[in-house]
Design brief:
248 residues; mainly alpha; Four Helix Bundle (Hemerythrin (Met), subunit A); 2 domains; 0% strand
Length: 248
């Protein structure tokens, strides 16, 4: 239902034009760093609102959504008709700016009517849209790496509910491979992060914590200790949520 409603409303937005969002007062279009910073200013509200919605903290989620709306309208004002060079030939660019604006508005409306699940869906859609926009231009920022790490986490978490026999070589190999994929994804985030973030104690605790938890996987495999593997997954779930809340 939300997707059908979105399609209709996005069509209306496209028809009215993005230029109506504000006065023509554009920033330096060739400064990709400035553009990424403007996107991050909006995306930070999006992810924090998602965190509050998971705990149904309506008041704080509402504040973050209002901040997201204001920050996104600033992106539209500065870059709606004057994209950075890296995005000028990107076919997703104009549509993404419209769609993110729509989904922010949708999340605000859904939250106001108590539809927390629909609000979360709208904000998760924004994360995906921005990720796909950057992918199409060959651009990567820390938030993109976090999304890839989330996906690697989800693949590893699938072992939690499974009836595992770690004595079977194919199962042991599968667990080891997915743990290695997750470790590589997290390590890549360390490389992608700006220097000031990489040195931040909070970021270090998250990345080092993921590595420390994964260090127990070989022991769990070698001893056939499924309970240990489940404890590792429990720790990683906490790191996954915090990484997304802070940097995703």
């Amino acid at each position: 239902m939300l997707r059908l409603f979105a399609a209709a409303c996005i069509g209306t937005l496209l028809a009215t034009g993005i230029g109506a969002a504000g006065p023509v007062d554009y920033g330096p279009a060739d400064e990709l760093t400035d553009f990424n910073a403007a996107i991050e200013a909006a995306a930070s509200h999006n992810r924090i609102a998602l965190g509050y919605l998971r705990t149904e903290n309506v008041d704080l989620a509402s504040l973050e959504l209002e901040g997201m709306h204001s920050a996104w309208m600033e992106v539209v004002r500065l870059y709606g008709q004057n994209p950075p060079a890296a995005f000028r030939t990107n076919p997703r660019y104009a549509g993404t700016l419209h769609e993110v604006r729509f989904y922010v508005t949708t999340a605000i409306a859904m939250l106001s009517s108590g539809q927390f699940g629909a609000a979360r869906e709208a904000l998760e859609t924004n994360r995906r849209l921005l990720h796909e926009l950057r992918q199409a231009s060959g651009i990567e920022v820390l938030a993109d790496c976090v999304i890839e790490t989330n996906a690697a986490m989800a693949r590893f978490f699938a072992f939690e509910g499974a009836a595992l026999n770690l004595a079977k070589p194919e199962i042991a190999a599968d667990v080891a491979n997915k743990a290695a994929e997750l470790a590589a994804a997290a390590k890549h985030c360390d490389a992608v992060a700006p220097p000031e973030v990489r040195a931040n104690p909070e970021f270090r605790r998250l990345l080092d914590g993921i590595a420390a938890s994964l260090a127990y996987v070989p022991t769990a495999i070698n001893t056939g200790d499924v309970d240990m593997l489940h404890r590792v997954i429990g720790e990683l779930r906490a790191f996954d949520q915090l990484l997304t809340f802070r940097y995703g």
